[in-house]
Design a protein that fits this description.
Helix content: 10-25%
Radius of gyration: 19 Å
Number of strands: 10
Strand content: 25-35%
Number of domains: 2
Largest sheet: 5 strands, mixed
Number of helices: 5
Order of helices and strands: HHEEEEHEEEHEEHE
Length: about 190
């Protein structure tokens, strides 16, 4: 069973390593953040009864044997592993916990304005602005190359103006940022 876990971990890390890094995003941009409806595989090495799939509920919680509800939404898999391990310390000495995201169901980006396919785009891996433009069918003939990214943060909504001219011309640019779940892309006329 441990060999299966190591094989899965190697496959996941290899898949993520294949994602090109167009700009130098921070670790926060590239580390997957668990969201509502994601399907997780939680494995506690010390207890064969805690090897299960759990879906993140609408309240952002997951339920696990022995420790009950745990907040998963907003955490990386590595951070959630540490939180679960801390909660299991009364039951096990130095518990080893692995959390693997089996299904990404929460990475949705909203695209509005002068693109060929407006709407909700779902992604299953780290995604850049250029990849989202391509998924939306590209810009219309009326589109201005300047757009607005609306990103929710703890302090409220951030409105970030981005000039996509170099990006769309195929030039290297720091504007090809990694998107986050819930981002709104507004392409102007």
């Amino acid at each position: 069973m441990r060999a299966l876990f190591l094989l899965l971990a190697a496959a996941v890390s290899g898949a993520l390593a294949a994602v090109p890094a167009p700009a130098a995003p921070s670790d926060d941009d590239r580390s997957y953040i668990i969201g509502v409806e994601d399907l997780l595989y939680v494995w506690v090495f010390e207890d064969k009864n805690i090897q299960l799939e759990v879906r993140v509920r609408p309240d952002g919680m997951i339920s696990l044997p022995m420790i009950g509800d745990v907040k998963a939404e907003g955490l990386t898999p590595a951070r959630l592993s540490r939180v679960i391990a801390e909660k299991l310390e009364p039951f096990f000495e130095n518990p080893n916990v692995a959390v693997i995201v089996k299904e990404i169901n929460s990475f949705k980006v909203y695209v509005l304005g002068e693109v060929n396919r407006q709407g909700v785009l779902s992604f299953y891996q780290p995604t850049t602005l250029l990849q989202a433009i391509a998924a939306a069918g590209g810009l219309t003939a009326f589109a201005n190359e300047k757009m607005t990214l609306i990103r929710q943060s703890e302090g409220g909504a951030e409105w970030i103006k981005i000039d996509c001219s170099d990006l769309l011309a195929g030039k290297p640019t720091a504007d090809n940022i990694y998107l986050r779940p819930g981002d709104v892309l507004l392409f102007h006329r």
